Amino acid sequence: MRKPIIAGNWKMFKKLSEAVQFVDEVKGQVPAASKVDAVICAPFLFLPTLVEATKGTDLKIGAQNMHFELEGAFTGEVSPSQLADVDVQYVVLGHSERREYFNETDEAVNKKAHAAFENGLTPIICCGETLEEREAGQTVSKVSTQVTEALKGLSKEQVIQSVIAYEPIWAIGTGKTATAEEANETCGEIRSAISEAFGADVADQVRIQYGGSVKPGNIAELLSMEHIDGALVGGASLEPASYLQLLEAG
Ligand code: PEP
Fold first, then answer.
1. Ligand 1 within 6 A of 62 CB?
2. Where does the pLDDT of residue 148 fall: very low under 50, low under 70, confident under 90, or very high at 90 and above?
3. CA-95 nearest atom, ligand 1
4. Predicted local confidence at residue 175, as pLDDT
5. Residues sharing a CB contact under 8 Å with residue 212, sequence separation 6 or more, in sequence order
6. What is the predicted pLDDT for the residue at 101?
7. Mind listing the pLDDT tens digit for each residue in 12-32?
8. What one-character DSSP code corresponds to residue 169?
9. ipTM
10. Among protein residues, the one whose CA lies closest to atom 5 of ligand 1
11. 167 lines ligand 1 (CB under 6 A)
12. Which amino acids are annotated as binding site for substrate, given as ranges?
């Protein structure tokens, strides 16, 4: 049995005071970590404060990106060791917005995935196709390549601990969700690609989230699917009530 993981991606929203208010309201109501992994991926600036505010609770904190180098002359970047130093536990890698606006490549995502494990962080590795790619029948090859390239060179144990987020780009922030069947089919293809690269024993244990306009009203159906083990959620993770409803479905 794969434990569901529901991760909020706050993107570049909220002020520090609003972020603290959110976690103060939510942290006591989060379902037990034995039932569901509850994560909030917040802007860098908020991370140490949110980690402190959630200490000893079942709400875990993640970053939305990082550099793959431990330190150096990389103005404006944040390193994996800096995230680990303030006890951040998760990091989103290769989100489509980073790939599109900041030229993040499969190669960079792979380096970041290695750096994440070397620093005790759990990567949430994103993949997804554009509408044009879907219509051209390229969904499976696109997402399989993104995932196998991202995981290249990791040990079986590290692959098992990785979280994959399948996020069709046309469904992010658009209100258009892939149907549960469509999402499940692609998540199943991702699992097959992992099985081919690392073995069925590994693929069976990797958690694959769906992301793209997930809300309290559609999460239960998505999570009922064989290959969907959680959700990466943007808009609907910004309000405590709706985030808690997402966790309750987990
Ligand atoms: C996301 O931020 O990864 C995402 C899926 O956003 P939304 O839920 O708003 O579509």
1. no
2. very high
3. 3
4. 83
5. 128, 167, 168, 170, 171, 172, 174, 176, 177, 178, 183
6. 97
7. 999 999 999 999 999 999 999
8. G
9. 0.97
10. 212
11. yes
12. 9-11, 173, 213, 234-235
- 40 strand-pairing partners: 8, 61
pLDDT value of position 1: 85
CA dist 3 to 50, 65, 205, 219, 239, Å? 24, 24, 10, 15, 24
* Residues catalogued as catalytic: 95, 167
Residue appearing with tokens 């051209």: 136
Percent of residues in the chain assigned helix, strand, coil, to nearest 5: 45, 15, 40
pLDDT at position 32:
94
Alpha carbons 230 and 209: distance in angstroms, whole number: 4
Which of 140, 239, 148, 137 lies closest to 187, judged by CA? 140
Residue 134 neighbours by CB under 8 Å, 6+ apart: 168, 170
Instruction: Answer yes or no: is the C-beta of 30 below 6 A from any ligand 1 atom.
Output: no
Over residues 153-186, the pLDDT tens digits come to 999 999 999 999 999 999 988 888 889 999 999 9
**The tokens of 108 are what?**
């960079």
